Structure formats: C-alpha cells, structure tokens
Amino acid sequence: SQQGEEDPQALSIQEGENATMNCSYKTSINNLQWYRQNSGRGLVHLILIRSNEREKHSGRLRVTLDTSKKSSSLLITASRAADTASYFCATDSEQIFGNEKLTFGTGTRLTIIP
Amino acid sequence: DAGVIQSPRHEVTEMGQEVTLRCKPISGHNSLFWYRQTMMRGLELLIYFNNNVPIDDSGMPEDRFSAKMPNASFSTLKIQPSEPRDSAVYFCASSPRGHNSPLHFGNGTRLTVT
Predict the structure, then answer these.
(1) Alpha-carbon distance B85 to B41, whole Å?
(2) What is the mean pLDDT of residues B26-36?
(3) DSSP letters for A28-78
(4) Which tens digit of pLDDT belongs to each residue from A39-60?
C-alpha cells in the first residue's frame, strides 16, 4: 500500500499563480522527499525535509512538514509552463545500511496553463 | 555525470518471451533500486541492492522476476516468462551510501507485453 497520498490528484492553474500540493503519510518518518516527473522521464529529486524541520526553501519551492498531522505541503510560487509535471512525495519507511527504502505517494498531476 | 542509464527505452514482446532490462548506476553510488510504475499501482519498489548485494526483494511480484548486480556498474532485471500484466514502465535508481541521500532515476524502460 502507498505510504504517502497526494492531494489533489490533479491541479490546473494559470501561469504565474502559486500551486500547492499536499501529502499525507501513515507512519513515523525520518525524512520526506519531493520528486518531479515530466512525461516520459524518470523522477527528479526536488527537496528533502527532515522530521525535525518544519519548513524548507529551494528557489521557488517551499516545503512544510507537520509531523503531528503526518502531512507535508509543496508550494511552487510564480508557476511556469515548465512546471507542468507530476509531483510525488516519498517517505522512508525503513532504513537498512543507512539508505532509505523510499515509498512513493500516488502523485499530483500539475498543469500550468499559459 | 551521465546519470543513471537504462536500456532499452522501449521493449515490445510477446507473452511468454524472456525480457531483460539493463541499468548502469551513477559511478560511486552504492545503492541501486528497481521500481515499477503503472497507472493502477503507482510506483512500486521491486528490489534494492547495497554494494551489489540484494537487501530486500520483497517487492518482486513472483518467481518470474529476477534481478542481478554482478558489479557496481551494472544491474539487470529479468522477466521470464513475460505476461501482459507485466506491462509497465520500469525504473532504475541509484543513490550514494549514507543517510538522507536522494535517489537518482534513469528515464525508464517502457515494457509492453502483448
């Protein structure tokens, strides 16, 4: 079963607007990651937030983490057409030999309308 | 850095045939992961290796699936015999050893079994 569930499943906004995607998970985590997937391509890592962090920024990306609610949000500000992609959250359900065994959510399909 | 390289990009085969997917991880990365992506089930972890040793293959759907990593620069995922329900996009990803290291994905192999 999926550890993370993204919400909404699909989102369409006008270019220049902000896009917010949410992720909920079920078990305790050490960190949460967000990935982007363009059509026909592999996933690309965007940002990682640790369980003891509440907010993190990277360029136009802002990620928040609320461990008490077991949820995270990804905000993309000033969206561009190139941001059109699917976005996934991933949580580490267990760690073996220091490497995460990541479990991915179901993804949010983001469409930026020019 | 060439990234994770997968081949072939597309594979079309008939039911019952053997299929071999190949992956070259990023040099220096000690962990390698095989994922399968479908619309119905999303991204599923099939197996992962650490230092060429299979650590967890609990995601491998059945005995028809096997994976090897004969050295640090090469891995294969084999399906024998293939079935139509194996149709999916198969991704290979690698990560460096250590905590909180993002996964680097290849562009996947789209497998169609007719």
Answers:
(1) 12
(2) 94
(3) --SEEEEEEE-TTS-EEEEEEEETT-SEEEETTEEEEEETTTTEEEEEE-S
(4) 999 999 999 999 999 999 999 9
Which residue of A42, A48, A50 is in closest CB contact with B102? Answer: A48
Peptide bond into B96 cis (omega under 30): no
The predicted structure's pLDDT at residue A1? 38
The predicted structure's pLDDT at residue B106: 97
Q: CA gyration radius for chain B?
A: 13
Answer yes or no: is pLDDT of A26 > 70: yes
Cis amide bond preceding B81, omega within 30: yes
Q: Which residues contact B70 (CB under 8 A, 6 or more apart)?
A: B52
Q: Does A30 touch chain B (CB under 8 A)?
A: yes
Smallest CA–CA distance from B47 into chain A, residue: A101
Q: Report the C-alpha gap between B8 and B23 in whole angstroms.
A: 9
Query: B58: buried, middle or exposed (CB in 10 Å: 19+, 13-18, 0-12)?
Result: exposed
pLDDT score for B18: 98
Cis peptide leading into residue B54 (ω within 30°): no
